[in-house]
Fold:
Amino acid sequence: MIVRVFNAGISRGESPINYLMGDRDHTGQPRSVAPEVMDGNPDLTVAVINGIQRKHKYVSGAIAFRDNEQPTREQMREVIQSFKQTVCPGLGSRNVNALFVLHRDKGNTEIHFVVPMTEMQTGRRMNIHPLGQQNIRLYEAFTQVTNHRLGYAQVVPDPLKLALSDFERYTADGRRDRSNKLYLHRRLTKAIRTGQIADRDQLCYFLSSEYGVEITRKGKDYLSMKFPGAEKAKRFRGPLYRADADYQQIVIQARDDRQEHRLSPTEYRQTRDTLQQLVEARRQFNVRAYLMPRVLRSERLQQRREAQLQSVFQPTITTKESAMKEKNPLQAITREQTVDSSPIKCENKPNVIRTIKMMRDQAVMGDRANMTSDFGIAGLMASLSDLESSINSAVSEMNSARSPEQKANAERKLTALMERKRRLELQLAQARQRQLNMTNGIVRLPSGLGK
Structure:
């Protein structure tokens, strides 16, 4: 089993869903086995994707099993749940929309998924496949742990394999480029196995002398080549085309990798622990990004000023020299215990009186504000509850639509309701933050007090 994520996600929602649910594959041939929804609602996923105004709207991919791997339906459902808990931990169905569709028309088992790039409650961008090595390690660890639990052999990358793009895999023009590249790549692989090519420099000379291929660019991990008569160069990626490639070692590794590899108990524990750490880090990020109320910049500055005021009025603790260092210890101890009986001087008595009155008025106003805030929060929560019922009704209308026009109207209605829900959620979070600020408010003393 391996997880593949496709390089797409900028189209409307109909494009990926029609492919997943259609009766023809990407080549236009009829599917021998009809697709089956394993988890989610196709119409709802389309509506959520179409409601996103950003360029990148969704992440799509597939959990693909080998031909000899035949998971049961229960195992497939467990894999789906484990995958969701891994890529978006801490978030539930109210936060994330996802669709999983089973394909078996190619002979093997593939669970395709589409996840809109939005958090449902806040409307903020949410990506289950962000850039970076930490995300790659997360997917690799999930694959290794899942294969071990299902009793499958681990996926070992073929060092002699040519890396292909999604364009070359799934489009007509890309498949034409792929056939030419694979033909040349197989010839190079054969020459490397027989010892005719020892390093990348010899590979470039071999291409030029044997096939008339022009090397237009040498990158750290790729070569760009222009075929005879071609207008544009083609980029070749893979271990063979790296600048530091050791061909002899690659051939030995390819020979060893033909044998099945399974994790030892120690390797499994280490990989499981790594996965748990990566999932926990992502969970903490999700909680901060989507589940905690977002503090506005003005409120952050206000909290910072209040913290500074608190630090100003904190008592300063100083240490005194030990009384035993005095020549007369008894006199030193007596001085420390003596209380100054002189009366306290107040140079600005009217200012002190005004401050006391202001503190009393603010306490009364705070109680009234808290009552108003409570009523506002209750109203927002009631509106959200009514809105949830309207959303459920809109989903039912969309599912029961009998014509494209009815379905389009229901979809527009659902999109508007989701946007209204997002705004209400934001208002509720801001109201709760204001209430918290009023509860923890600090009275500012006049600048002239105590001088």
In short: Confidence is low (pLDDT under 50) at residues 442-451. Residues 192 and 198 are 7 Å apart (CA to CA).
